[in-house]
Structure formats: C-alpha cells, structure tokens
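so im writing up the methods section and need the Ovocalyxin-32 record in one place, dumping it here so i stop losing it
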Amino acid sequence: IPGVGHKYYLQFTTEDYRSRENVGSCLATVLFEKGNSPPAVTINCVDSKDEKQIQEEDNKIYQKIKQQTKPIVANDIPDSYGNIEPAFEPVWALAVVGSSKIMWEKSTENLSYSMAQVKSAKQWIRQDDFIEFDYTVLLHEIPTQEMISCHLRVIWLPGHPQKVKYFCASENQWFEETSGMESGSAAGISQEKEENF
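--- predicted struct ---
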C-alpha cells in the first residue's frame, strides 16, 4: 500500500504443539505499517476441535498445576537434549502461550521469533483461583540467530484471557497486556514481586 506499508493475506493451519496434529485453519490479514510494530492483524480461525474439548484440555493443564502442594520451580525446559519432563509440560505450555505475546509485539516483516527454552520458572501462590508464574525465556531471533532473554509474568485461569507482562534484555521498560480482563483481575502482582523480579 503506497505510503502506508505492506499488507499480506494468509491462509494457514494450526497444530497442537505436542502432538503436531492439525487443530484448525485460519484466514488472516497482516498489515506492517511503516515505522510501526506490532503489525495490525485481523484473523478468523475454525477449530477442528470443539470448544468443549479445548476447555477440557485447558482444565487438565490447570488442574495439574493447581494440584501441586508446593510452588513449582523449574529450570531449563526443555533440557539440553530437547526433553521435557512430563511434570513440567503444563509449565512449558503456559510459557509458550505467554511468550507468543512477546513474539507478536517484537516481530517485524524482516524479524521473527520462536521460543527456544524456559531458563527458569517460578510459581507464585495466590489467594484466588488464578495461576501466576514468573519465567525467564530465551527467544530465538530469526534471521540474526541471536538468543534474546526475556522475563515474563503470566496470570491465567481457564475461560479467561491470559494477562502477560514482560521485559526483554534488549529493552529498558515493562510491556503489559491487559487481555481484556476487567479492572482488578490481576490482583496479586504486588510492588514487592516486581522489585524482586
């Protein structure tokens, strides 16, 4: 679009990150405006799984995390051989979804990211039903091949959008996604935690 930027029309399928099975198809338009990031995205997807099945899978992940008697603390997911311990799969899944927010905001027409590893994960115990984690993740920057370290806080409850807050080593400020949640729904992110973060 002369004077504005480049607009792309995409048709693609989505896949389950573990099983690699096709779980839906999408149509999207992506507009990269000159000098602006992130891109403006309009997307429409049709899931091959029904909504009930998706909710059941979310609830399984949620229950695995909530059933822990001590806060979860983990390092190097996956390990140096590419393995993920079954107990840490829910922790990894939550980090993948949270990191997608960073990857979307930082990507440009010529630069993209994929999550390479969770360097560390720490669960915060909350008084409500939400799950909260602090992560340090490594993002693989393409085409530079650099590894970018980002600190990520994720708050989630099935049926609600994730609340994501992050800081990357190459930046000097926090970025926050309110995810359409009502005011006060992120209670529990205290000033003390941010100072320790």
